[in-house]
Amino acid sequence: MQIAILLYEGFTALDAIGPYESLSHIPGTSTVFVAERPGPVGNDNGHLRVRVEAALDDVPRPDVLLVPGSGRYAEQQTNPAVLDWLRSADRTSAWTASVCTGSLILAAAGLLTGRRATTHWYGLAELGDLGALPTDARYVFDGKYVTAAGVSAGIDMGLALSGRIAGATHAQTVQLLMQYEPRPPYAAGDPATAPAGIVAAARRTLAAVIG
Amino acid sequence: MQIAILLYEGFTALDAIGPYESLSHIPGTSTVFVAERPGPVGNDNGHLRVRVEAALDDVPRPDVLLVPGSGRYAEQQTNPAVLDWLRSADRTSAWTASVCTGSLILAAAGLLTGRRATTHWYGLAELGDLGALPTDARYVFDGKYVTAAGVSAGIDMGLALSGRIAGATHAQTVQLLMQYEPRPPYAAGDPATAPAGIVAAARRTLAAVIG
User: In the structure, what pLDDT confidence band is assigned to residue A211 with cuts at 50, 70 and 90?
Assistant: First the structure.
């Protein structure tokens, strides 16, 4: 079983690495990071450069297809090479998955039309504009499509998807290996419950990046 | 303010990226990944290769020093180049931090002697053997030293440390940007509460890697 994680210039590192850390533990799988062009691919603030060795054409039929998000997701929504590859790889994938604004790329490829899906809280309206049925949940399964909310939600999604693929005993063991018993230091992770001033500050930050 | 994240062959990706994702948002900071030798550095299972551009000598005085863990931490506990750099960088750091078995490397460098610290649950006894005061907590502050439990605990630690450095309003905003409202799909992240069979399976996996 092959797991392909799409990287592109400006990807958010935790979007990719959160689910990677659990999915890569599934027995009998190999994981490959794939990009439009092999070579170094930089994350959103340019600190991290991943040396990607596989081009899109090198990975035509992954079993699991995962698209991380980015503040720069719009560049991929209009990138024919990426959109064509997503549509083609999705034809034979067992699972097509995303984290954060990665679902806005999948939706732009037409893969989420009429499906329940989620994304970063800031992007839920756009997800609906793109034809999906926006769902405010940590992660959403609709058939073989599984989408996670913003950034850190990919960790929860990755473990849940691991459970679907390899069973709950395996996924629980990986959760314990990762010591995933989260204790967020603040109660600020959800716009519905975070302090109003924090929500306003986050919206300003995102508006400056995304519009 | 400079944040230095040490990478070495076999590092666990989420150990590094979890806290990176919050710490890199601190205003006025630059983050640098640093390794003994510049060039590609592979993670524990070799899927991810990070192109590191800074050698240890290029980053002599980081303000924040962060050491991720690995199943292969023992190689670094006896690596004089890394140990010397940690001791030297620690002399002027404002914060010296670790995730998972990264604290076992800090302890091997003599930096945690007599200090309260934590690590992956599987490594707490070794942390005591190395002279620290093992503390079973999600993350532990002792003066400028902050250590996190296994793998995913670096996310909580990174946000808590962001709060110490840049204030709670900033850290809460970053938590909301990351949508960090975790919903683990299973109750298996802590050996004290995970099902006994899961704990036994995780111990077998770790014994095969670490001993």
Answer: confident
What does pTM read for this prediction? 0.97
> Cα(A180)–Cα(B75) distance, rounded to whole angstroms?
25
Instruction: For an interface test with B, give the residue of A15, A140, A181 to mutate (most B CBs within 10 A).
Output: A181
Predicted pLDDT of residue B210 = 85
In this predicted complex, what is the ipTM? 0.97
d(CA A147, CA A67): 9
Catalytic residue numbers of B? 100
Measured between beta carbons, the chain B residues lying within 8 angstroms of A160 are 185
Q: Is A179 a catalytic residue?
A: no
* CA A25, A117, A58, A38 torsion-angle sign: negative
**pLDDT score, position B48:** 95
Distance from CA of A159 to the nearest CA of B (A): 7
Q: How much of chain B exceeds pLDDT 90, in percent?
A: 98
Beta carbons within 10 angstroms of residue A193's beta carbon? 11
CA-to-CA distance for A82 and A194, rounded, in angstroms?
Answer: 35
